Amino acid sequence: MVELVADYGRVMIGRIEEIVIDCASPSTLAAFWAAVLGGTPIDEHPAWSFVDPPGWSRLAFQRVPEPKSVKNRVHLDVDVADLSTATAAAVALGATPVGDIVTEDGGAFQVMLDVEGNEWCLVSSDAGVATAPDEH
Fold first, then answer.
1. Closest CA to 26 of 7, 47, 41
2. DSSP symbols for the chain
3. d(CA 116, CA 96)
4. How do strand 119-124 and strand 107-113 relate by DSSP bridges?
5. In this predicted model, what pLDDT tens digit does every residue of 38-84 receive, in sequence order?
6. Does the pLDDT at position 134 exceed 60?
7. Which of 20, 31, 53, 88 has its CA 20 to 30 A from that of 40?
8. Using CA of residue 93, residue 95, residue 100, residue 106, what is the dihedral sign?
C-alpha cells in the first residue's frame, strides 16, 4: 500500500471520495444538488443516488427510515458571485432561505435549507470564505 503524504510532511490516511447525506428521497436530492452544483443526477437504485459536480467530490444520497430532526453537524458552503441572484435561483429550485443575508468583514452568507430541510450556505467573498465556522 502506498503511503500518502500531506502538506507539512504528515502522513494521510486517505482522500475524500464522496460525501454522503442521509435522506428520505435520494433521487429528489440528487436532482436538486445537480441543479445547484452542476453534474448529472444518477439514481443507482431507489435507496442510493448521487451527483458528481464538476471539479469536486461526489455528493451521494442514501435513504434512511428516520426523518431529519436536528440541525446538521456538517453543511456545504457554496461559493457564488452574487448572493441575491443565487438565493433567488436556489428558491426557484425549492430551497428555503433562513433569515436574511449576513454581511461581515470577510464577505457575506445566506443560510439555506435544501428540499429536505438540510442546512447549507450560499457564500460570497473575495477570499472564498465568508464566515467564521461557528456563525452558520
1. 47
2. -PPEE-GGGPEE-----EEEEEES-HHHHHHHHHHHH-S--EEEETTEEEE--TTS-EEEEEE-SSPP-S--SS--EEE-S-HHHHHHHHHHTT-EEEEEEEEETTEEEEEEE-TTS-EEEEEE-SSS--S-TT--
3. 10
4. antiparallel
5. 999 999 999 999 999 999 999 999 999 999 999 898 999 999 999 99
6. no
7. 88
8. negative
| Percent of the chain's residues with pLDDT above 90 | 73
Cβ proximity of 8 and 49 under 8 Å: no
- Which residues are 24's β-sheet partners? none
Are the C-beta atoms of 52 and 17 separated by less than 8 Å?
Answer: no
Residue 3 has pLDDT above 80, yes or no: no
